[in-house]
Write a structure and sequence with these properties.
homodimer; mainly alpha; Multidrug-efflux Transporter Regulator, Chain: A, Domain 2; Globin-like; 2 domains; 3-stranded antiparallel β-sheet; DNA-binding
DNA sequence: TTTGCGCTTTCCGTTACGTCAACTCCTACG
DNA sequence: CGTAGGAGTTGACGTAACGGAAAGCGCAAA
């Protein structure tokens, strides 16, 4: 029982060109070649092709697949190494995406060349931003908590999500308005905003004074948060942090 | 003031070969070419090169960079589109890494061909696995909570992290031992294990009965958790879920 | 004069094939 | 028996962004 190259192509889903390529690089030579030069494959070749396609789908290079198949290298070892490469590359793209995101924000800041404190309206502010917020190293450390947030988030609709994002943005804009007219962070109106913020956080976590201050500092230190605040208005992250610290001192300790 | 190709290479950090390439594809022609064929660059070219390198670092293709620079296309628009591509590719790699991870687990299950319930010892069980636990879509939804876990995680050393992973694994192995000898999930010894698990979770979150059951179900439904449990012993995820449900009924409601 | 540096052009190699182009072989049809 | 068509073949070029090697030219010091 032998099959032609077109048969194999149909059965496996790859093109005949690909099979010829695999022959050319020595990855999958046909069982035998007819007098007219036609390639013929048998079951052994089909099995080998199956292995090849499996590893190919996992993203391994053809060279590496050949090594594993021919030199009897440990497949698990190869996959593990490959897995590591995938993670590295994923993290690289993750970082890159955040850098791009930040660059976009900076370009937009440049564009409107006013030197007074400027408050950006939230129309398109979070487009292409929401998915780039997190770092991959830390997100692997607390699966349980992450699971919980995932489970909670899964109960939300897209509209819910969008609405909450708008709420957050609106809160940031109100703070920016206070800051623009130099209202001190201890002003009751500002503290009322912080209180709303605190209540929002309490939906899934109740920080004490130190923790709440730490969270405020995060808004300044963390590139992603800072970028979000800076897009609303320059210096807003620090203003928010100071307001939160004042709140923590007055109401949480 | 003009500079030779080597001057520009030194100043910019790229190779002269690269500059020649950029000339060849029309991305950065030199200001003028001397009688001996030598390329000479002036300040305008340096500025253009600066732009090119900026966008190149962000991962844009040379073609696209040329389009932006020559046709005055909107840089922000180009970056936004690029950003989207980056996220898509990142997610693809993320998914791929998880698939590879699962495949490794399955290959290892195949390798030891015993048909009785087998408990895998945790020596190398989590190598190359810990960074592939999470899905990117959901992780973008709850920045605050994620921030908190990040802040907590950042206070941990690598040893802390490893120790906690070992603890988790040890807990899973103990559950597997109960399961292997068919101890019912309502057995006090099993429930004691679940209680330890519950206490661990309470370090950052206090689930009620329904939430705790839901978490148990997650261990079964979620590919990543399930894979981790299945690597210890087949069916362990379900056993754990049932034990948690029993615990929730008995102690949390 | 020779050596050597700096520069040039040209070409091959990298991945995993897609896409022609030109050619051969075999079968069916008129 | 000629020919159209289908299935197969090899060969070559293209992809992105250069790296590296080979071979040659102009100029200056030793």
């Amino acid at each position: 029982m032998a099959w032609s190259i077109a048969d194999v192509a149909r059965m496996s889903g790859v093109t005949s060109r690909t099979l010829r390529h695999y022959d050319e690089i020595g990855l999958l030579p046909p069982a035998w070649i007819g007098g007219n030069g036609h390639r013929h494959y048998e079951e052994a070749e089909l099995l080998r092709l199956q292995q090849i396609l499996l590893m190919r789908e996992l993203g391994l290079g053809l060279r590496e697949i050949g090594d594993v198949l021919d030199n009897q290298l440990d497949q698990v070892e190869a996959l593990r190494a490959h897995h590591q490469r995938l993670l590295t590359e994923r993290d690289r793209l993750d970082t890159l995406a955040r850098t791009v995101s930040r660059t976009i924000a900076e370009l937009q800041k440049e564009q409107d060349g006013s030197d007074m404190t400027k408050i950006n309206r939230p129309e398109k502010l979070f487009e292409g931003f929401d998915a780039s917020r997190h770092e991959s190293k830390a997100r692997d450390k607390w699966p349980q908590e992450w699971e919980q947030s995932k489970r909670y988030a899964d109960t939300l609709t897209a509209e819910d999500h969008e609405r909450m994002q708008r709420e957050t943005t609106a809160q940031m804009v109100r703070m920016a308005e206070f800051m623009a007219v130099d209202i001190p962070v201890t002003d009751p109106a500002v503290q009322a905003e912080v209180d709303a913020h605190y209540q929002g956080i309490c939906r899934f976590w109740t920080p004490n004074a130190a923790a709440f201050k730490g969270l405020g500092q995060t808004y300044v230190d963390d590139q992603q948060w800072r970028s979000a605040y800076d897009r609303i208005a320059e210096g807003l992250a620090e203003y928010q942090r100071d307001a939160m610290a004042a709140y923590a001192d007055a109401r949480l300790s």
